[in-house]
Amino acid sequence: MTTHRMGLAEFQALIERDLPMGQWLGFRVEALGDGKAVIRMPARRELMRPGGTIAGPALMTLADCAMYAVVLGMRGDAVMAVTSNLTIHFLRAPKPVDVIAEAAMLRLGRRLAVIEVVLFSEGEAEPVAHITGTYALPGTGHRPSGAVP
Amino acid sequence: MTTHRMGLAEFQALIERDLPMGQWLGFRVEALGDGKAVIRMPARRELMRPGGTIAGPALMTLADCAMYAVVLGMRGDAVMAVTSNLTIHFLRAPKPVDVIAEAAMLRLGRRLAVIEVVLFSEGEAEPVAHITGTYALPGTGHRPSGAVP
Amino acid sequence: MTTHRMGLAEFQALIERDLPMGQWLGFRVEALGDGKAVIRMPARRELMRPGGTIAGPALMTLADCAMYAVVLGMRGDAVMAVTSNLTIHFLRAPKPVDVIAEAAMLRLGRRLAVIEVVLFSEGEAEPVAHITGTYALPGTGHRPSGAVP
Amino acid sequence: MTTHRMGLAEFQALIERDLPMGQWLGFRVEALGDGKAVIRMPARRELMRPGGTIAGPALMTLADCAMYAVVLGMRGDAVMAVTSNLTIHFLRAPKPVDVIAEAAMLRLGRRLAVIEVVLFSEGEAEPVAHITGTYALPGTGHRPSGAVP
Questions:
Q1: What digits encode the pLDDT tens for the residues D25-52?
Q2: Using CB atoms, which residue from C48, C61, C147 is nearest to D90?
Q3: pTM
Q4: pLDDT in tens, D65-105
Q5: Contact at CB, B148 and D112, closer than 8 angstroms
Q6: How far is CA C21 from CA C41, C119, D24, D48, D90, in A?
Q7: In sequence order, which residues have a C-beta less than 8 Å from that of residue A7 and are 6 or more positions away?
Q8: Structural domains of chain B ordered from first start
Q9: Do C90 and D80 touch (CB under 8 A)?
Q10: What ipTM does this complex have?
Q11: Are D147 and B109 within 8 A, CB to CB?
């Protein structure tokens, strides 16, 4: 049995169709494959927080989407995968520019995937946030529960 | 010196003015005081995810807002406080109903505040998610950095 | 099929037999049942850190053991369960006295258990640390991997 | 004012003197400098867990020590720094061999340091665990609190 690996265009379409917050925030998939993903969040005035920086929840939303992209880029059949946990460390105030998420699979197991994401302000070398998280993968032949399996 | 403690109406006004994602998601502050906060996220069809549940990032956004409320409910001068880190465990698929965040201060230090949040689907006894996180508080007499202090 | 629920004495014996660090640290199970566990770490001079407080890793070891106790107290067959992730927030410097871990199951799923632990210095009302974590449970009829399943 | 940067030998001596669990576990500093640290935990039969792998708390202890090394390697005056939080994801069952911690500073602020650690079984390319954490740094001219500042 070969495993379907979701590509860039297919995941972009999934955002538009199934991820309302990603759609609202205008996420654009820039790369997907080989256990990695790059997703861009365009700068928007509405996301600014007191202090002129970008709202933390927008960064968390971006990171969660990038984790999901990495999972589907390796297990395209796992559309029903759900976030099991996520930890974010905010490192620096993002500039009021686009934010780029670079995600990589740390470990793809049979039932769990652990992913690392680093967020950058466009054009900056130092990251603005670091995220690790776990996705619970749907099993073969049983229905997903949408929560902790 | 007495410390200003932000109340329910004042924090609701702050959401409308300064927290674009909280405003978009329609957050309603239901209680604020004594180191606790309760915030409601009304059910919305747009937030539904594949599987008929509520998007994880909406839950994270709600939790972050509830943490911020608890901080300002005890340190009303700390509007420039920023999230330093946040960990969320998703426990059960939320029902397609309102989600209620119940937040409590675990430790208010001089420079850091650690807060716990539990999320419930309205009318359910078992939580849908558990969150802990840290806010970095602006110091007295120095300007906030908007990032890790 | 009835599920074996491990009791206090049985888990204490497991510490002595299988958990070398818990044995070295002298953990004593004080309660186990109903999705809860209480474990005591006796004060020891060797655990003191610069500043006269207790070493953070000893607290993490205690928390991890208490999570495991809660799991086995509900699923006594799951001896091969392994920690999938753990997040600890240190809240206050522990006094140089015994530390008490109070653990509770947040969600027992078929494949994952999420547990919360609060640590107290004996005789103190305010917690010294807060922990959440996930245990991966061995499945029925397949061999445990000892890592992310 | 120049900042003292602690070197390998000085940090090894600190382990022997001040970190009882690190001493018990036989930690050996292999590199320290430029915002990075490498620490080795020798394989020991006593650390084995059911299933023939290494106890998770030993891995957490190693990670915490490596974070502390990175901090002191950049701020040698910050001996009173304390762990504020730590998140670990266990990725693969460690082999019964030495474990190597590779730690790097993600962000050194004035009051907080955020550090990433990756743990490897000796001779293996894939990591066994991933850790992020925050150290709270003592301020200049005020006494450390030993807890959340």
A1: 999 999 999 999 999 999 987 787 666 7
A2: C147
A3: 0.93
A4: 999 999 999 999 999 999 999 999 999 999 999 999 999 99
A5: yes
A6: 11, 18, 10, 10, 18
A7: A32, A33, A73
A8: 8-136 (3.10.129.10)
A9: no
A10: 0.92
A11: yes
